[in-house]
Amino acid sequence: MWKVVAVVVAACIVGVFGDKVQYKDCGSVSGTISDVDITPCPTEPCQFVRTKTINVTVDFTAKTAISTAVTKVYGFILGIKTPFPVPGDACQDMTCPIASGAVTSYKNSVFVKPEYPKVSVVVQWEVHDQDDKLIICFNVPVQISD
Ligand SMILES: *[C@@H]1O[C@H](CO)[C@@H](O)[C@H](O)[C@H]1NC(C)=O
């Protein structure tokens, strides 16, 4: 009985908050990441299914005042850092300006194009502040699949 309750509660939590994933911080300076959520990603490494849209939500605390911010996304394919095209203005994906100490949610999404190769890739997601310091930087391993 308690197992059933636990599963139902867990399912509700996942349903509401999405899929928190393991990530490696790759040098966040002007922010502190509390959670990285990738939906859908029921099992890790995350499967990025071609033709589907993946939602990315990052909760972080700003360590300095942030007026403008730029998103840069890269994929390490066979160790080579390759830029992944995403819209740059990160203030479209969170509310700017951000006061120092404010807890902020950054939300973005990526469309997994049908022509992407079915490779494993370490995604590096960076958001830079007005001084080009990293507000957030995280690595997540991903498998592109059908
Ligand atoms: C991703 O976010 C969009 C906009 O908030 C929402 O409509 C969509 O259902 C989300 N997709 C998933 C897989 O959670």
Automatic annotation (TrEMBL):
Protein name: MD-2-related lipid-recognition domain-containing protein
Ranges for domain MD-2-related lipid-recognition: 23-142
Cited SUPFAM superfamilies: E set domains
UniProt cross-references to CDD domains, sorted A to Z: Npc2_like (cd00916)
GO cellular component: extracellular region
Protein family (similarity comment): Belongs to the NPC2 family.
Lineage: Eukaryota, Metazoa, Spiralia, Lophotrochozoa, Mollusca
SMART domains: ML
Gene3D superfamilies, sorted: 2.60.40.770
One Pfam family linked to the record: E1_DerP2_DerF2
One Gene Ontology term from the biological process aspect of the record: intracellular cholesterol transport
Molecular function via GO: sterol binding
Location of this chain's protein in the cell: Secreted
Keywords: Disulfide bond, Secreted, Signal
Signal peptide coordinates: 1-18
InterPro entries xref list: Ig_E-set (IPR014756), ML_dom (IPR003172), ML_Npc2-like (IPR033916), NPC2-like (IPR039670)
